[in-house]
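Appendix B, record 7
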Amino acid sequence: MTREQRLRNKYNHCIYSFDETGSIASTQLMRIVDMDDNLKYGKVEALDDAEMKRIQATIDAVIDVNKSIWAFIKLKNIQV
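Structure tokens (predicted):
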């Protein structure tokens, strides 16, 4: 879940750039990084098909964990 949390935080703390068709083209992190004598702001990354597959895989992993938790709760007859 830590890996999934990192991905969620990444996309919750960025701004999005759109291309001329209105599709998301890239993201820019809203983070300032202090590197020795200079500051870096907002790493820009493309939002390509490979990244979209990674996002979908993360969503699928969270769904699987959720289903496992609910199955456990039902099995143990835990009241929520």
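Remarks on this record: The beta strands are 14-18, 24-29, 32-35, 38-41, 44-46. Residues 49-75 form the longest helix (27 residues).
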